[in-house]
Amino acid sequence: MTKQTNRNTYIKQEYLPAKLTGKLQDCIFNNSKYQYPTKNNFLQCVSTIYYHQVTKGIGLNNYVPLGRNYWHTVYGGNYHEKVINPLLNEYHIIQSEEFEPRNITDKNALHLSGTKKGSVSIRYRINPDLLGDKYENITYIDKRTVLTALERMMFGDKEFIITGIPDMNFRVSIDHDKACKWVDSNAELICDEFLKTDYIKTIPDGLKIECKELIDKSGNWTYNTKYRSIKAAKIYAETRNKEFFYFKDTFYIADLQEFLKQRVQSLKYHYKQQIAQLGIIPIEEKRNPVTLRLYSQLTSFPSKILQFININNKTVVQLDLRTSQFLIFANLLNLYIGHGEHYLLSKFRQEKNLTYLKKLIGILNKFQPQLPNVGVNINDSTSGQYSLSDVTKFIRDVFFTDFYGVVQQELGLQERLLAKHVMFKLLFKKTNRPDELLSRLSQRYPVVMNIIADFKKPDVTKEKSDDNEDNRESNFSVFLQCIEGEIFVDNILHKLRDEGIPCFTRHDSIVVSSGSEGRSEEIAKQIFTDFGFKYNHTVEDKFWEAVDDDEIEFSDYMQWLIDENELNQAFYVGENVDDDKYEPNEYNDMDEEDIEILEKLREIGIREDYYGIVDTEFLEELTLLTFLNERQRNILYEDINNMHDGMSFFQDATNKLLRQLLGENDGISGMRL
Question: Most buried pick, 441, 485, 513, 561, via CB within 10 A?
Answer without folding.
Answer: 485
